[in-house]
Design a protein that fits this description.
This protein has about 160 residues and is mainly alpha-helical. It contains 9 helices and no strands. It has one domain: Hypothetical protein af1432. The chain is globular. The termini are far apart. The relative contact order is 0.14.
């Protein structure tokens, strides 16, 4: 079984533990948006992107409060991804890239560590945020933070008409 299938099987079970907004359907929505964003971009490592998307919110546990989840879920999700990938003997340098892309999707990490330097990190960030742009308020909150022109075009084309 290839690594993406193994990760997907594992992750589907883990996401059932999360709050309503961070179930497997969230991963599917982010994946779909990320693939739209990445279409036509050169140099995208699709396996890296897909692994990071699958793991990005894997620890958004509904038993904890929202504030704790928001602040800690990325670091916890990174640890889960690292442990799983190491157990599967995934190459260490690729694990580091998956972790970096996951960190890049987080606004608090963006503020603390700086802007993403990895294309896949920019795609994940944009996909994760742009799927929530459905109102004028969310447009004003997220649109200025988006990295890529592809994302901004998608948002204007598909979301802005309904705002």
């Amino acid at each position: 079984m290839n690594i993406l299938r193994k990760v997907k099987k594992f992750a589907k079970k883990e996401y059932k533990k999360n709050d309503k907004s961070h179930q497997w359907s969230h991963v599917r929505n982010v994946m779909k948006q990320a693939l739209k964003i990445s279409k036509g971009l050169k140099g995208v490592d699709s396996k890296l992107l897909k692994l990071a998307i699958i793991f990005h919110d894997i620890d958004y546990n509904s038993e904890d409060n929202f504030e704790r989840n928001y602040k800690c879920h990325v670091d916890n999700s990174v640890k889960i991804a690292e442990r799983f990938l190491e157990k599967e003997n995934y190459p260490k340098e690729k694990i580091q890239l998956v972790k970096q892309v996951m960190l890049d999707h987080s606004t608090p990490h963006r503020k603390k560590l700086g802007e993403s330097k990895i294309l896949e990190g920019k795609i994940l960030y944009d996909a994760d945020k742009s799927i929530f742009i459905k109102t004028k308020e969310t447009y004003e909150k997220y649109y200025p933070l988006l990295y890529l022109g592809n994302t901004k075009s998608l948002v204007r084309k598909f979301c802005f008409s309904s705002i």
